[in-house]
Amino acid sequence: SLPLQIMRLLCGPHAALIPPSRPLWGLLSKSGTPPAQVACRAGPGTQSLPGPSDVLECNTLRPHLRSRHSPFNESSHFSGRFVSDEDRVMLNAIYFSSSSPSADRVRCSAPVAGLGEKAGLVVPPTSSGGEAEAEDVCIPLPTWGMRAGPRESIYFEPSLTRAASEGAVVTVGGLCPGLNDVIQGLVRKLRDYGVPEGSTFGIRYGFQGFYSKKHRPVVLTGRSVEDIHLEGGSILGTSSIAPDYRKIVRMIDLMGLDMLFVIGGAGGHMGATQLEALLTQHGVRCVVVGVPKSIDNSILLVDRCFGFETAVNEAQRALFAAKVEALSTWHGIAVVKLMGHASGFIALEASMASGIVDACLIPEIRFLLDGEAGLSTYLDRLLQRQGSAVVCVAEGAGQHFFDTPHRDRAADRDVGPWLAAALKERHPGAYVKYIDPSYLVRSVPTVSSDRTYCKVLAHNAVHAAFAGFTGTTVGLVNTHYVLLPIPFVTQAPRRVDPQGNQWNRLRAANGQPNFT
Fold this sequence. Notes:
Blueprint lengths: L1 H10 L43 E2 L11 E2 L18 E3 L17 E5 L3 E8 L13 E4 L3 E4 L5 E2 L12 E5 L7 H14 L7 E4 L14 E3 L24 H11 L3 E6 L1 H16 L5 E6 L15 H20 L4 E7 L6 H10 L4 E3 L13 H12 L1 E7 L20 H12 L4 E5 L2 H5 L5 H19 L5 E6 L2 E6 H4 L11 H10 L6
Parallel strand pairs: 1-7, 9-10, 9-12, 12-13, 13-18, 14-16, 14-17, 15-16
Antiparallel strand pairs: 2-8, 3-7, 4-5, 5-6, 7-19, 10-11, 18-19
């Protein structure tokens, strides 16, 4: 048979069909039943993977809505390849045969109600954590997630809704490359569904724009979002100020909105959760769908957040400039502070990619400044050996140095200037330069990979909304697009594993110790 021929090409001439006892694909078929199972013959010790009953479910408003056929068909906008609610994505694609300490600790054992002990996500503590955060946190993780994409049945009628009743878009939190790309993608995909031109509103300057008398919502049209992806920032503006969610619910009801798209990070998604709960409580039928934004790449479970690759690319420019500064003086030390309150992914990836960073400091790992194992001693050796050094520090690193009563203000806990001053004090003969490119990194337009990613995320958010899902966000998990309940991804930030391959690859590349 053709499947057997394919497997023999992949596995060798002795490959054989095995009974369909273990699903090998991350995705199930449209009907929800596993396709014919083909695999290399199982070796000793192989265990069966769990079945598709253990699913990370998402809330819907479907019981209160009427289903109808999707406007997409084989002749317009779409090829007819719809996604079923029974399609599944495996949330953890790796099976570990042992608990070797050298393996990435991406899973653990955690109790799940009604399911017994199940795999879980490991979230390492931050370097500033107290006794309560001294150990890893294990978050229960079901085996399967719901696949994102267009459904054959939708639960809103695009062409019969009045102006402003179809959808609204809001950006929440700090700037991040790709905000305009997502806004553009949302507006254009709503238009593909048949939403009349001008029936989508943009909420100005965060959640407060719903009820602010200074900033009225704006109409988003295909013309108004044309070419906005070429600009950085957000055409709607953004804000992190805590809003009055009850006022927002009243405005959503008055405006007759059916859909609200929240582009935000953990804080914005927590706000979306509060809104969804209040909308349900007051009987307002409006779905709330998120698009996860984190320049730190700190959204739990998601492979990467939009804007992250752009940020890493831009951060390298600052590191290259720092290298030039360090090389241009005798015993030059350049300190570069990058974003990363709780997660050090930008600092780690930019350091790895640039290949010029001598010491990378991240929030997940405490570091010593003094002593034989300290950073200062290591820099002494570097200056003697190579004459210069570049230090990359994430903004959340080293917070344990500030656990004193007189350092309560955020400005007093800024690790960048503090570290530069501390190194200058300890190396009086060195020239210490400090660079903070944060605002440059987050305000630029996206690179091509992020630009494409933003579009796909936006499209899947619209698909989720028309399918009636609420309290849901979309993300890339194990290279597949998945619908995720917002409360799950806001439990804890995604962090670098200090015992994992990613961090140890960097240490192998630049030769730095852990400074502990």
